[in-house]
Write a structure and sequence with these properties.
CATH architecture of the largest domain in chain C: Orthogonal Bundle
Number of helices of chain B: 2
Chains: A mainly beta, B mainly beta, C alpha+beta
Protein name (chain A): Sulphur oxidation protein SoxZ domain-containing protein
Oligomer: heterotrimer
Shape of chain C: globular
Shape of chain B: globular
Domain Sulphur oxidation protein SoxZ (chain A): 10-103
Pfam families (chain A): SoxZ
Largest sheet of chain B: 6 strands, mixed
CATH class of chain B: Mainly Beta
Largest interface: A-B, 34 and 36 residues
Number of strands of chain B: 9
Radius of gyration of chain C: 18 Å
InterPro entries (chain A): Ig-like_fold, Ig_E-set, SoxZ, SoxZ_dom
Helix content of chain C: 25-40%
CATH topology of the largest domain in chain C: Cytochrome Bc1 Complex, Chain D, domain 2
Organism (chain A): Falsiruegeria mediterranea M17
Strand content of chain C: 5-15%
Radius of gyration of chain B: 16 Å
Strand order of the largest sheet of chain C: 10-9-11
CATH superfamily of chain B: SoxY domain
Number of domains of chain C: 2
CATH superfamily of the largest domain in chain C: Cytochrome c-like domain
C-alpha cells in the first residue's frame, strides 16, 4: 500500500429530493506515472490510482478510469441526484491492489 | 534525482522533454489511433460537448479541465502531446445529475486536450482545447 | 499594481500574456485576506507589498480560494492525525500538552522570534517539543511530517497580519538577514533583491516574479505537488542562481526568514498557500 494515502470528500449534509448536488473528492497519492527515471537512470515503475467510483445507496453516480496523466493527489468534481436519504460510498483502486474507501451520509428533506 | 535542467523538464512534464513545443504535437497520431479504437471509426459530431481548459497553464503538472456533454453515457479525455494519450474516462451512472466532470491533469507540453463523448444513441461527439504549457522561470 | 506590472511586463516577456496577474481580491472560504498594503517603513526601495498570490494565474489563484480545492489540506489533515499520535520515549503526543491546536492562533505571525538569545522558527519550536518533551527523534526540516505540522499550526493564524519583532534582541539577526538579502552570490552573481525587489512583476522566462513573500508558507507548489518549507524554497532559489545553498535550519536561512517576514508585515497569513 502506498504510504500516506488519505481520501477527502465534500458532500452537502442535506438536499431536496431530486436536487443536483455537487460533490468534490481528493485523495493523496503520488500517481507515479511510469515515465520518470531515478538517479541511476532506471524507470520508476508506474503506481497510480486506476479507478474511482461514487455510488449512492448502491447505485452508480460515476465510475472513472484513471491513466497516469491524472495529476498527483487526484481530484474530481461532479454532480449527483439523490432520490432519498442515504449514503454515498467513494472508492479508489490502487495499482498495488489496495482499495481505499470513505462514506458520507446525506439527508433528503 | 539531481536537479539538472533535463531532470526538471522530465519531472515537470511527466516524461517528455520539450520536443513537442512546436505546433505539431509529437504524439498526435497516437491519439487518433486511440480515438478510432474507442469509436470504431464512427463519425465524430461536434457541438453537443464542451471542454473548458486554461488557454495557458502555469504548470503542466496540474491543469484543471472540465467536460460537459448533456446526453452522454461516457466521456473520454485524451492529451495529444503526452507520451500516453489516454487521460481518463468518466462513465456516468443513473444517479449522475449531469454529464459533466472536472479533474486536474498532467500535460507534458503545449498541446490539444481532446474529449470524446459517447452519447445515449451510440453516436460520438468531439471537442478539443489547445493548452499552452509554460516552462518555469529559473530552472524549471 | 496593475500599472506597474503591465508597464514592466513587456520588457522581458515571451510575448504572451502568460501568468499576468488576474485577480486582485483574495477571500478564502469567505474570509478576506490582505494581499496588498503599504510597505513597512524599513523598506527603502518598495512602496507597496503584495502577496505572491497576486502574481499567479487565475487557475492557480482559484486553488487557494476554497479549502477543499486547495490540495495542501490533504497534508493539514495528515497533521491533525499526527497531532494526536504518541511518539517517543515519554509516551506523549502533541495533544498531551497542547489541548487544542487552535490555541496557536497568532503564533505564525510572530515567527521567527528570539527565545533566550536564539532566533527560532516554527520548525525549531516543533522539534524542541519532540526532543525535550516527547523524547522523540526530531523531524527533518522540510520533510512531509514537518511541513504538514507547520501547515496545521500556521493555518490557525490565517487571515491575521504578519507581525514579527525586528528590534531589541531581534535586531542583530534582522540586520544579518538584510545583509544576506542584498549580497550577490553564486555563479550568476545575484542577490535576492535583484529578482524580488528590482524586478518583481516582470517575467523571468515564462514565470511571473513575485516579491518573495513568506506569508503563505508552507506552500503547496504545483511543480512538486507537495508542501514546501521556507528554507526549502530558499535553497531552490540559491540553486537556480548557481550558488551553494546554506543549510536548512542554519543561522543564515533563519536570519533571512526573519528579514523576509519583516518585509511582509501587515500581509495576511495565507498558510497553506498554493503557488506554481
Amino acid at each position: 500500500m502506498a504510504s500516506g494515502v488519505k481520501p477527502r470528500v465534500k458532500v452537502p449534509k442535506s438536499a431536496a429530493a431530486g436536487e443536483a448536488i455537487t460533490i468534490k473528492t481528493l485523495i493523496s497519492h503520488k500517481m507515479e506515472s511510469g515515465q520518470r527515471k531515478d538517479d541511476d537512470g532506471n524507470v520508476i515503475p508506474r503506481s497510480i490510482i486506476n479507478r474511482f467510483t461514487a455510488e449512492f445507496n448502491g447505485e452508480s453516480v460515476i465510475d472513472v478510469t484513471l491513466e497516469p496523466a491524472i495529476s498527483t493527489n487526484p481530484y474530481f468534481q461532479f454532480e449527483a441526484t439523490v432520490p432519498e436519504s442515504g449514503e454515498f460510498k467513494f472508492t479508489w483502486y490502487d495499482d498495488d491492489g489496495s482499495v481505499y474507501d470513505t462514506s458520507k451520509k446525506i439527508k433528503v428533506q | 534525482m539531481k536537479l539538472t535542467r533535463r531532470n526538471l523538464l522530465i519531472l515537470s512534464s511527466a516524461g517528455v522533454a520539450a520536443t513537442a513545443m512546436g505546433s505539431l504535437p509529437a504524439f498526435a497520431s497516437l491519439t487518433d489511433d486511440e480515438i478510432a479504437k474507442l469509436t470504431g471509426g464512427a463519425e465524430l459530431g461536434e457541438g453537443a460537448i464542451t471542454i473548458t481548459a486554461p488557454e495557458i497553464a502555469e504548470n503542466g503538472n496540474t491543469v484543471p479541465i472540465e467536460v460537459d456533454a448533456p446526453g452522454a453515457v461516457a466521456i473520454t479525455l485524451f492529451a495529444d502531446g503526452n507520451p500516453v494519450p489516454n487521460v481518463a474516462t468518466f462513465n456516468f451512472g443513473p444517479l449522475a445529475a449531469s454529464r459533466s466532470a472536472s479533474t486536474r491533469i498532467r500535460l507534458a507540453s503545449t498541446q490539444n486536450v481532446v474529449a470524446i463523448a459517447k452519447m445515449e444513441d451510440g453516436s460520438f461527439q468531439k471537442a478539443s482545447a489547445n493548452v499552452k504549457v509554460t516552462i518555469g522561470g529559473c530552472g524549471g | 499594481m496593475t500599472k506597474k506590472l503591465w508597464a514592466t511586463f513587456a520588457l522581458i516577456s515571451l510575448g504572451t500574456s502568460a501568468a499576468a496577474q488576474d485577480s486582485n481580491s483574495l477571500s478564502i472560504d469567505g474570509e478576506a485576506m490582505v494581499t496588498e498594503i503599504a510597505a513597512p517603513s524599513h523598506m527603502e526601495n518598495v512602496d507597496t507589498i503584495y502577496s505572491g498570490w497576486r502574481f499567479r494565474s487565475v487557475e492557480t489563484q482559484a486553488l487557494e480560494m476554497d479549502d477543499f480545492d486547495n490540495p495542501a489540506f490533504v497534508f493539514v489533515e495528515q497533521a491533525e492525525d499526527l497531532w494526536d499520535k504518541v511518539d517517543g520515549a515519554a509516551g506523549k503526543a502533541c495533544s498531551s500538552c497542547h489541548e487544542d491546536v487552535a490555541d496557536f492562533a497568532g503564533l505564525r505571525t510572530q515567527l521567527p522570534r528570539v527565545d533566550d538569545g536564539e532566533l527560532v522558527t516554527m520548525e525549531n519550536l516543533i522539534n524542541e517539543c519532540r526532543t525535550e518533551r516527547m523524547e522523540a527523534e526530531p523531524w527533518k526540516w522540510s520533510k512531509g511530517n514537518m511541513t504538514a505540522m507547520t501547515a496545521l499550526i500556521g493555518v490557525q493564524s490565517r487571515g491575521m497580519p504578519m507581525n514579527v519583532a525586528i528590534d531589541g534582541d531581534a535586531a542583530p539577526f534582522w540586520e544579518k538577514g538584510k545583509e544576506l538579502y542584498y549580497t550577490r552570490v553564486g555563479q550568476l552573481d545575484m542577490a535576492c533583491s535583484n529578482c524580488h525587489e528590482d524586478n518583481y512583476g516582470m517575467m523571468i522566462r515564462a514565470d511571473h516574479l513575485s516579491q518573495g513573500q513568506v506569508n503563505g508558507f508552507p506552500t503547496y507548489r504545483l511543480k512538486n505537488a507537495k508542501l514546501n518549507s521556507i528554507h526549502g524554497r530558499f535553497k531552490g532559489c540559491m540553486k537556480n542562481i548557481r550558488a551553494t545553498p546554506f543549510k536548512e535550519g542554519g543561522d543564515e536561512f533563519k536570519a533571512l526568514e526573519l528579514y523576509l517576514a519583516s518585509r511582509g508585515q501587515g500581509l495576511s497569513v495565507e498558510t497553506p498557500s498554493v503557488r506554481n
